[in-house]
């Protein structure tokens, strides 16, 4: 018996065994994996500050109260009324005389005025910046 280059088994006439054994071969592949650092990054943050002056208009409303004596007899209760920017609130009382009369004692006049003022307030504003640097596996910077 002789084996040829092609892997097959040949038998000669002198070899006459009762059984013929042919080896069967099988290959196996195994796959393994591992983690490898190919590159890294570095993130740096910086904070920049900027001084600014904010300007804003502020309004302020003031109320002026003026009491005007009227001292006059009226037939009905006067209603609250507005004349321009003045609100007039009637104040009355009942006085006992031989007959009851409605007597207007005074009017309270309320005037509103508004003033505007420019205000400047210094403030510090912060702005954060991030820079990213990529490094290869050996720690050298990667330039793109």
Count of DSSP helices?
0
What coarse outline follows from CA principal-axis ratios?
elongated
Strand order of the largest sheet: 3-6-5-4
What's the main sheet like? 4 strands, antiparallel
How far is the N terminus from the C terminus?
A: 66 Å
- Domain module count: 1
Radius of gyration: 53 Å
β-strand percent reads over 45%
Average pLDDT over all residues: 83
- Return the structural class: mainly beta
According to DSSP, the number of beta strands is 6
Low-confidence stretches: none
What's the helical proportion of residues? under 10%
Q: Can you write the helix and strand succession as a string?
A: EEEEEE
Protein name: DUF2382 domain-containing protein
InterPro entries: DUF2382
Pfam families: DUF2382 (PF09557)
Domain DUF2382: 22-131
Q: Can you describe this structure?
A:
The protein has 144 residues and is an all-beta fold. It has one domain (2-136). 0% of the residues lie in helices and 62% in strands. The protein has no helices and 6 strands. It has strands at residues 2-3, 9-10, 39-74, 81-83, 86-95, 101-136. The strands form 2 sheets. Strands 3-6-5-4 form a 4-stranded antiparallel sheet, with no helix packed on it. The chain has a two-stranded antiparallel sheet with strand order 1-2. A hairpin with a 2-residue loop joins strand 4 and strand 5.
Structure keywords:
four-stranded antiparallel β-sheet, 62% strand, mainly beta, 144 residues, two-stranded antiparallel sheet
Secondary structure topology:
Layout: E1 2-3, E2 9-10, E3 39-74, E4 81-83, E5 86-95, E6 101-136
Antiparallel strand pairs: 1-2, 3-6, 4-5, 5-6
